[in-house]
Design brief:
The complex is a heterotrimer of chains A (about 210), B (about 200) and C (about 240). Chain B is mainly α. Chain B has eight helices and no strands. In chain B, helix 1 (about 5-30) packs antiparallel against helix 2 (about 35-60). Chain C is α+β, with helices and mostly antiparallel strands and about 240 residues long. Chain C has three helices and nine strands, in the order βαββββαββββα. In chain C, a hairpin with a 2-residue loop joins strand 6 and strand 7 (about 155-160). Classes of the chains: A alpha+beta (about 210), B mainly alpha (about 200), C alpha+beta (about 240). The interface of B and C includes residues 163, 168, 176, 178 and 205 of B. Strand 4 (about 85-90) of chain A pairs antiparallel with strand 5 (about 110-125) of chain C, so a sheet runs across the interface. Chain B: Its main location: nucleus. Chain B: Belongs to the Mediator complex subunit 8 family.
């Protein structure tokens, strides 16, 4: 899939190959108190572009999950996201939760992404295959537009760029802090990028 | 006796001292209102020291076994004009005591010996009576101070000692550390297991 | 501005060896002067804000995994001359560090030995995340800490302070350090806690641990007569819930 997308890109623009990249995503779930049964997750095995597989999970009231995101463009820290908060934290947080908070949180899903990065004018395009273990889950593309940091303006520009590529239909995510509603002149922060990744990579967990 | 003249002279001086001390004391006692005890005390002290030095001097200068007042003999020097001052001479050389003084002397010499032990016993009794009459422990402040409403008196003892006396009960180290670790207030902290007594060092398992 | 690297709370994960001493109020200035002399440096004093969190969920019977108290720590900015920092104290915009200190291990070593894990927050709603993590605020307190370094030993002289109880202001449950003159010591006798600690990267690095233990023993000897550095009761540092 990746070469196909890259090919498309090449047809429209003169992309500059700048290297490989990788990402890691972990999803944890609040451990359910013993006595409550949980439906086992079903994952769709057919590959799709960022389309959420039909995954259903019975979760405790408040549906609590937590996601860690390890991105190359923010190397020293993890992006940690829950339904109600998103932060950046030192990497040691992962060790803390794994060794001392295992009574509260269990790992549920680990995804790895591997792919290539291209630069096209002011755009940076990252394309990666998402794998869960040996299972291919889909392709993820991140388009970064550097010159403008105002979300409202940038969205328009990026959307235009993507639509012009003629790629196969996929899910376009551009979620700001307000989850759709954007404050006037809101500036980009790494949390916005993190939020988008987490939304996409959650793959429907927690409904 | 080396120099009878000088000894006599100094003894006379001491006797003079004694007389004036006695006079002063007796005057003080005879005033309309007794003077404060501090004054009487000082008079008494003066008397006592005068007597002491006098008796000391007497013993030294007129050692008892050897000398007897009546054995002192005085005589005029050749240069004394004995012819013209015959009356004066005889007066000076007269050793006979004034009749009043004679009486005193006889009376004193014949008085029964004073039993010192009895005297001290009696003194002790008097002191004890006085002591029992007073309450030494309950009232720290004098009547004067109590009337003035004195709350406390600064005695000038160093601050450090004062702090020790007013020691405020503080928290143990363990209680403070437990609060730092768990946020549970010291008052609410359950006791640690018996084996965990402070100061026992590393637990041996 | 991130705290300078040697300050106590900036490191993330390490094994800590330590000795403690309880210092009466009257002796604190003298002890500080003496240690300052030994180390050849002036103490760095900061006011720390501590939020102690407890897991919301009670421990399940039979569950063999432990639940721990968790702390969030930040440094309180210095008060301006007129007693108030612009805009007051905003608990949510402070730069917090998460810290979980494990219960000290039972050991024959002449020091307290424990694991410490931590992670610093960057951007985002730190307090909101800790809430999502499944914790609730148990207590807040402040601590004035004077730090000195002697070779590998981090020496801290600390006093726990409590803010006046106030229910009026928003976020009052987190505690407000201003005005700092209103903070009262937890201990009515105003005593201080002296701690000498060595941090070792891994508890499996026996050589470093030995070096640390010996350094602490040496420092204890140096301070003999001035104050007694002892192995504190292990369970007094227990962070396990129940």
């Amino acid at each position: 899939m990746v070469p196909l997308l890259a090919d498309h890109l090449g047809k429209c623009h003169q992309p500059l190959y700048t290297g490989k990249w990788a990402l890691e995503h972990r999803l944890l779930q609040k451990t359910i108190p013993s006595g409550t049964s949980a439906a086992s997750p079903t994952t769709s095995s057919s590959p799709s572009n960022n389309q959420s597989p039909q995954t259903h999970q019975q979760l405790p009231a408040g549906g609590n999950y937590m996601q860690y995101l390890d991105l190359p463009h923010y190397p020293q820290r993890l992006i940690v996201s829950t339904p109600s908060a998103i932060v950046t934290l030192d990497r040691e947080f992962e060790l803390l939760v794994r060794s001392k908070l295992s009574a509260l949180w269990s790992p549920r899903q680990t995804l790895r992404g591997e792919g290539v990065v291209y630069e096209v004018d002011d755009f940076k395009v990252r394309i990666a295959n998402i794998m869960q273990g040996d299972v291919w889950k889909g392709v993820l593309v991140e388009v970064e537009y550097a010159p403008c940091s105002t979300l409202a303006v940038a969205e328009g520009v990026i959307r235009g760029f993507v639509e012009g590529l003629g790629w196969p239909a996929g899910r376009f995510t551009f979620v700001g802090k307000g989850g759709g509603k954007r404050a006037e002149g809101e500036e980009w922060s790494v949390l916005d990028t993190g939020r988008q990744y987490c939304e996409v990579l959650r793959m429907g967990w927690g409904g | 006796m080396e120099n009878p003249q000088r000894s006599l002279e100094s003894t006379r001086a001491r006797f003079d001292q004694l007389v004036s001390a006695l006079t002063a004391f007796s005057n003080a006692l005879r005033t309309e209102q007794l003077p404060p005890w501090q004054t009487l005390q000082s008079h008494f002290n003066v008397l006592s020291s005068t007597l002491d030095s006098l008796s000391h001097a007497l013993v030294q200068q007129f050692p008892p076994p050897q000398v007897n007042a009546s054995a002192l003999v005085s005589y005029p020097l050749p240069s004394f004009p004995a012819n013209s001052q015959e009356l004066l001479l005889s007066t000076l050389l007269n050793k006979k005591l004034n009749s009043t003084v004679q009486d005193w002397t006889l009376k004193a010499l014949n008085a029964p010996t004073v039993n010192n032990d009895d005297l001290w016993d009696r003194a002790r009794e008097i002191v004890q009576e006085q002591q029992e009459e007073r309450n030494w422990y309950d009232d720290i402040y004098s009547l004067e101070e109590r009337e003035a409403g004195t709350e406390g008196i600064e005695t000038g003892i160093s601050e450090e000692k004062q702090e020790k006396e007013e020691a405020i009960p503080g928290l143990k180290l363990e209680a403070i550390l437990r609060f730092m670790e768990t946020g549970v207030a010291p008052a609410d902290q359950p006791a640690l297991p018996m084996a965990a007594m402070p100061g026992t060092g590393p637990m041996k398992r | 501005m991130p705290p300078p690297p040697h300050l106590s709370f900036a490191q993330s994960a390490y094994h800590e060896l330590s000795l403690y001493s309880h210092i009466p109020a009257a002796r604190q200035p003298q002890i500080l002067r003496v240690i300052s002399g030994i180390t050849g440096m002036l103490p760095e004093t900061t006011l720390e804000h501590h939020l102690v969190y407890k897991p919301k969920r009670p421990r399940q019977l039979g569950q063999n995994m432990e639940l721990y108290y968790l702390q969030l720590i930040s440094i309180v900015p210095e008060e301006q001359k007129h007693g108030e920092v612009e805009g007051g104290y905003d608990v949510k915009s402070q730069k917090w560090r998460m810290r979980l200190e494990d219960v000290p291990e039972p050991t024959r070593k002449p020091v307290t030995s424990r694991n410490v894990l931590g992670a610093g927050f960057g951007e985002g709603d730190s307090l909101g995340l800790v809430d999502s993590l499944g914790f609730m605020l148990q207590t807040n307190y402040f601590m004035t800490v004077s730090t000195l370094i002697h070779n590998n030993i981090i020496i801290t002289l600390s006093q726990v302070l409590l803010p006046p109880t106030s229910h009026a202001a928003p976020n009052a449950q987190y505690g407000n350090p201003y005005p700092t003159s209103g903070l009262q010591p937890l201990d009515p006798a105003r005593s201080w806690v002296l701690r000498a600690a060595v941090r070792v990267q891994s508890h499996q690095d026996l050589e470093s641990i030995n070096t640390g233990v010996n350094e602490l023993k040496g420092f204890k000897e140096l301070m003999r007569g001035m104050c007694g550095l002892e192995v504190v009761e292990r369970l007094a540092l227990d962070t396990r819930v129940r």
